[in-house]
Amino acid sequence: MVYNGPSRGCHMCRKRRIKCDETKPACNRCIKSGRNCPGFRQELGLVSHMEIAAELKTARYATKDTIIPSTLRPPFEDQAACYFMSNFVLNPTLGGAPGFMNFLTLLRTMNHVPKHFEYAFDACTLAFLNNREDSRNIFEKEALGKYAKALSATFSALRDPELAKQDVTLASVLLLGLFEQIAPTSMSWSALGSHIEGAYHLAMTRGDEQLRTNIGLEMFISVRSRMIIVNLLSSKHLALDVDWQINDMVDRDPTFKVQQLSLMVGELRSEANRLLTNSTHSSVHVNKVFDLLRRCQAHEVVCENWARTLPEIYQFKLAAWEDNVPNGDYTKAEVYPGRVDAYQSLSVVHMWNIVRCARLALASIIVRCAAWKSAPIDYRKTEEYSASVRTCSAIITDIIASVPYQLGWFSKRQDLLHEKGKFSTFECGEDNVQKGLGGYMATMPLVCVVMQDYTTTVQRIWAHGRLHHIGSHLGIRSSHSFAQLNVRMPSMLICRNGIIASPCPPITDIDQLLTT
């Protein structure tokens, strides 16, 4: 191939290693892909580079002994970093949809990168590279070694009051939490939960100052998002004002509104756990339960109406209707028979599914309150239960319809995405392929689907299959352990409330308890 000098393309196209159409002032390739075109190199610089290249070419031909180098391969740490960034560092969209972990790009370019951040980043990147289907776990030992060093170095950094407030320290804790989802060190929730709780306490100590920089604001949003996961998927509750440091942002940014609505559900569930496990049926206590029920129903209306105020970029559209299950095997089916929806980015579908999971948790509280006040009558005969069945069935259908977009189903069906959705734009690499971030974001809604009483048997089988697919093909191995959960909501919580309120001999087999 003839060398015609350095590329005259824009900086973004050269970074992505694609051909630029060189339209000025902004190239059409960047505009079509939703990126900001940073401009072009100066012509003078191009001329000088071409002259130097010509001189080097002449010198090479003048050399008597020509040496042909062997194929060059970058160090596996660099491969791991590039692979990780192309799967997890999501760029924000022009319309305002947030990105994911963009702060890593800036923190890695610091003049002095602290060891605890370096170890935590390397641990995540090596673990994710190790989880590739063809890796044969060759990087597992290196990843665990980096993780152990990151834990020790981060613990030392947290003991320094000044260092503990720096961006790199909070970023390190967030990376440690992500490592526990990529390559969990235990089958329990404790390790991941402890990292998220640690990030929450760090964010508390950083105060309002963290919101004054782009990096601080992005990490603050990330901490709140992880807190919501803790609230929705476990009994762990982190007491926090739902309007903490975001009073003036809720009306301007849908991301903060979603977090506010979801954290309010966590507050309501914490209150329900206190009230519904109390055997007292005094008039005061009954009034508190009725008041909680009314507030939950009112919040459900607010959550349901939330979507009507969203800008166009946050809306989703029907892209396809599938009814084929290959070989009748739902565990391997990419799509559950029915709707397939398209979204504008992974952050948008994640926002929708957070609200959907919050509404499922809210419906569970409502049914628990109805069961408490109607006992000993079967709660499944109450109006609240009938309404929850309709609401939750529709929400489960919406979640299932969103999963193919998250898991890259459209990468081989780009014609279906035209004018109905877009691929998310990542820091590097190709955008129209399966991404680890999609699996990471799809895990929580799939777990919520699996746990619901209202999920059909076939839907649950399909959701289990998608969780195992995420663990085996998208590098999020914690999804394997989530797929093993054998929990049903709200029936198990109602049963537990009955046991606590009316003590009886312990029964260790919960399945036997539910069938009697």
From TrEMBL:
Pfam families: Zn_clus
Residues annotated as domain Zn(2)-C6 fungal-type: 9-37
Keyword Nucleus applies: yes
Keywords: Nucleus
CDD domains, sorted: GAL4
Coiled-coil annotated spans: none
Example of a GO MF term: DNA-binding transcription factor activity, RNA polymerase II-specific
Chain ranges passing through the membrane: none
Name of protein: Zn(2)-C6 fungal-type domain-containing protein
Organism from which the protein derives: Hirsutella minnesotensis 3608
